[in-house]
């Protein structure tokens, strides 16, 4: 589960329950259930601020149906999580460097490359002796 998101209004410490999005081309504000992910051009609002939302004159507010309570993880979500944990636990460890991140292991196991040669977006340079 992700962290609980707070209301975007300054000085408000309440948990967000709704997401506000502006459609400037249509002069419309859309207020709906809390989005799954925090979006950069949307505002998360608590119940009080969502209920007292006002928009500029000439704008329209489109209020989408709000759920009575936040969605809880379902059996499918829990089974998917359990399957992922089982799969990760059943993988055999890879050699002695298994504790190092995959990118570090790849660099350690990679064959030597000629000086100045390019490998992807990286270039190998040798220190002068």
Q: How would you characterize this protein structure?
A:
With 129 residues, this protein is of the alpha+beta class. It folds into 2 domains: 1-91, no CATH class; 93-124, no CATH class. The protein contains 3 helices and 6 strands; from the N terminus they run E-E-E-H-E-H-H-E-E. It has helices spanning 47-51, 75-90, 102-109; strands at 18-23, 28-33, 42-45, 60-63, 118-119, 122-123. The strands form 2 sheets. Strands 3-1-2-4 form a 4-stranded mixed β-sheet. Strands 5-6 form a two-stranded antiparallel ribbon. The protein is extended. 9% of the residues are buried. The mean pLDDT is 76.
Oligomer state equals single chain
DSSP, total strands: 6
Helix vs. strand class? alpha+beta
Count of domain modules: 2
How are helices and strands ordered from N to C?
Answer: EEEHEHHEE
What portion of the residues fall into strands of 2 or more residues?
A: 15-25%
Shape: extended
Average of the residue pLDDT scores: 76
Cα-to-Cα separation, first versus last residue: 52 Å
Q: Can you count the helices? A: 3
Taking all Cα atoms into account, the compactness measure Rg is 25 Å
Helix content range: 10-25%
Uncertain runs: none
Largest sheet: 4 strands, mixed
Q: Which strand order does the major sheet show?
A: 3-1-2-4
């Amino acid at each position: 589960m992700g962290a609980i998101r707070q209301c975007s209004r300054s000085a408000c410490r309440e948990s967000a329950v709704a997401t506000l999005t502006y459609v400037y081309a249509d002069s419309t504000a859309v207020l709906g259930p809390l989005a799954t992910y925090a979006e950069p051009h949307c505002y998360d609002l608590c119940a009080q601020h969502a209920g007292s939302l006002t928009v500029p004159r000439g704008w329209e507010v489109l209020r989408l149906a709000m759920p009575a309570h936040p969605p809880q993880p379902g059996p499918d979500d829990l089974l998917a999580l359990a399957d992922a944990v089982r799969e990760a636990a059943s993988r055999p460890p890879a050699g002695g460097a298994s504790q190092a991140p995959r990118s570090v292991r790849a660099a350690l196991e990679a064959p030597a490359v000629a000086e100045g040669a390019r490998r992807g977006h990286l270039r190998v340079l040798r220190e002068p002796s």
